[in-house]
């Protein structure tokens, strides 16, 4: 009893959904009838079943859509629901006919629409008293229902073929390992007709699979059978309007109850049963039936009766994707022409073009990044090679400069060595005296130490200039770089009778640099200045070296001479490789000097506004 009560409660609640849809359809029919202008057209729609049967609701929805699209405003629509499937007593049919005859005695219809075979039969039997002998348009009528009927020429409609065999073929495609086929039908006359149709189509075995027909059971009995089915069985719930206890149902509701407990997938020939646990079926939708009925009725209202008497509505495979996944059916078995419900396309299928475009963009970007990375590596390699070549060239330039200074450097070393020799000889003679003059001997030894340090300083500076390879920038004093460079060039300057004036605005000018390279730059600038004054009288040969810190924080060193200067417009040219004002020079000295200064983050240029001689300005970042 409790199980029966629970089932009845579930069915009662399931009826509310089609009822709401029915109310929406009624409202749409009322709207269609508003705004009439000209002669009024009237349509009577007879439905075989009750108003809230899902199939009826779907037919009505298709009719509404079709009539709104094809009929003018002002058509009056009347709907009647015979419910003869639940109340088939002939006396009841007579009462319904009498009631409708009385109701529409003063109403003339232009078209009568009949939904279902019972409604078609009712419309044919009473078309003179109820339908005003108007043309009839029918739908939701199976082809088997019309086999023995000869219809009048003005009766046209949509013939449906609810194909049991094609539905089982579809089931065997989805379940090739099926062990049995179970067909369920109810106890009403309509249900028994369906069982006979199924037996005619399938017999006791179909394609080698045994077929078992279940009917004349209570709802609980159907549930028991379904719950005991093996997983590889095929369950088809054809139609159950009434069970063995005489209880009447919506077939869709019964299908949902049975499929919810079934251990095997459920199939149906009705599109209205989808969403109620049916996994698949070869169906034509009731909504399409309604649409086609509306199109035919629209033509008749327009005076066109030339169309064929019947239109066969072709069905097709329909699949519920959610249940395909639930039952673990291989999706590859789904026919390509199937209508798949509840299918959410994967992102790859839904946005294939966008994804391919995005992947192409990503690949292009990746290729661009790789190309840029490889190009950067190539540039870094070339830059490294260039730096090594620049360092080698700078080294060769320093070697060349030292070659120019070799005589002066030899003289610079010869002086302390000569002094050391002289002091050593004096000390030797002093040791022969008795007594030995200790104080004088100490002075001689101190002079030897000083001369040795002087020679060592020259050698140290020479060694620094001869360093080759990679160098680093370290904190240093620009003034120190200037003084040590002058010390190296002192003998050469004396030989060339050139005076040097040094002006340091600050005791220390801190920078970050490489001492040997900066000494090379300064030495080159000093020697260039002496060369520029070769034709100047010795009294006027003067070089001024000045260091200071600029207002913007950078450090500046200038080398000024009183030579012939540089021609106007050629101040930038002299820094280019192989450009020189001297016939015996390759023209690489200033180019190398500028590259060294630029590597230090500084600039090297001539003062274009200086007129009496030449002034070169070296600017370096401050520490």
Which stretches of 5+ consecutive residues score pLDDT under 50? Answer: 1-36
CATH superfamily (homologous) name of the largest domain: Histidine kinase-like ATPase, C-terminal domain
What fraction strand?
15-25%
The CATH architecture designation of the largest domain is 2-Layer Sandwich
- β-strand number: 21
Structural class: alpha/beta
Overall geometry comes to rod-shaped
Strand order of the largest sheet: 7-8-6-9-10-11-13-14
Q: Summarize the biggest pleated sheet.
A: 8 strands, mixed
User: How large is the radius of gyration?
Assistant: 56 Å
Number of domains: 3
CATH topology of the largest domain: Heat Shock Protein 90
What top-tier CATH class of the largest domain fits best? Answer: Alpha Beta
**What distance lies between the first and last C-alpha atoms, to the nearest angstrom?**
99 Å
Number of helical segments? 18
């Amino acid at each position: 009893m409790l199980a029966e009560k629970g089932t009845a409660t579930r069915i009662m609640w399931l009826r509310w959904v089609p009822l709401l849809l029915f109310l929406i359809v009624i409202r749409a029919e009322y709207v269609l009838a508003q705004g009439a202008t000209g002669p009024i057209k009237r349509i009577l729609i007879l439905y075989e079943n009750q108003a809230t049967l899902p199939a009826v609701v779907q037919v009505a929805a298709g009719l509404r859509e079709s009539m709104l699209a094809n009929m003018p405003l002002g058509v009056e629509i009347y709907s009647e629901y015979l419910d003869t499937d639940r109340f088939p007593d002939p006396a009841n049919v007579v009462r319904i006919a009498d009631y409708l005859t009385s109701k529409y005695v003063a109403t003339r219809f232009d078209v009568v629409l009949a939904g279902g075979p019972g409604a078609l039969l009712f419309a044919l039997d009473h078309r003179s008293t109820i339908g005003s002998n108007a043309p009839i348009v029918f739908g939701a009528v199976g082809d088997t229902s019309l086999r023995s009927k000869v219809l009048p020429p003005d009766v046209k409609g949509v013939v449906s073929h609810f194909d049991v065999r094609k539905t089982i073929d579809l089931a065997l495609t989805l379940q090739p390992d099926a062990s049995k086929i179970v067909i369920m039908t109810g106890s009403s006359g309509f249900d028994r007709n369906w069982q006979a149709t199924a037996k005619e189509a399938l017999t006791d075995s179909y394609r080698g699979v045994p077929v078992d027909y279940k009917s004349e059971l209570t709802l609980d009995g159907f549930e028991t059978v379904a719950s005991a089915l093996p997983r590889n069985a095929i369950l088809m719930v054809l139609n159950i309007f009434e069970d063995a206890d005489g209880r009447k149902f919506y077939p869709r509701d019964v299908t949902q109850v049975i499929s919810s407990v079934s251990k095997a997938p459920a199939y149906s020939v009705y599109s209205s049963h989808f969403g109620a646990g049916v996994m698949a079926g070869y169906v034509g939708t009731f909504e399409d039936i309604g649409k086609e009925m509306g199109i035919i009725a629209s033509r008749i209202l327009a005076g066109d009766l030339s169309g064929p008497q019947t239109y066969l509505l072709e069905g097709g495979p329909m699949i519920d994707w959610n249940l395909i996944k639930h039952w673990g059916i291989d999706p590859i078995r789904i026919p390509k022409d199937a209508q798949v419900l509840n299918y959410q396309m994967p992102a790859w299928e839904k946005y294939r073009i966008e994804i391919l475009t995005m992947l192409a963009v990503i690949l292009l970007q990746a290729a661009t990044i790789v190309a840029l990375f490889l190009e950067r590596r190539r540039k870094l390699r070339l830059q490294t090679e260039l730096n090594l070549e620049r360092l080698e060239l700078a080294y060769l330039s320093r070697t060349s400069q030292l070659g120019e200074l070799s005589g002066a450097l030899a003289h610079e070393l010869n002086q302390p060595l000569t002094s050391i020799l002289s002091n050593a000889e004096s000390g030797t003679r002093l040791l022969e005296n008795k007594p030995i003059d200790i104080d004088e001997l100490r002075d001689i030894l101190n002079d030897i130490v000083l001369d040795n340090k002087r020679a060592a300083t020259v050698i140290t500076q020479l060694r620094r200039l001869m360093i080759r390879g990679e160098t680093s920038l370290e904190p240093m004093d620009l003034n120190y770089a200037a003084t040590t460079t002058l010390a190296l060039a002192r003998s050469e300057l004396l030989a060339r009778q050139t005076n040097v004036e040094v002006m340091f605005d600050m005791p220390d000018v801190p920078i970050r640099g490489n001492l040997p390279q900066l000494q090379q730059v300064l030495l080159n600038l000093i020697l260039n200045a002496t060369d520029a004054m070769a034709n100047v009288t010795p009294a006027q040969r003067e070089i001024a070296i000045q260091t200071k810190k600029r207002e913007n924080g950078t450090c500046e060193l200038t080398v000024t001479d009183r030579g012939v200067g540089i021609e106007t417009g050629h101040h930038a040219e002299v820094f280019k490789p192989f450009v020189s004002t001297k016939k015996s020079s390759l023209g690489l000295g200033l180019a190398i000097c500028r590259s060294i200064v630029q590597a230090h983050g500084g600039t090297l240029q001539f003062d274009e506004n200086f007129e009496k001689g030449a002034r070169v300005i070296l600017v370096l970042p401050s520490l």
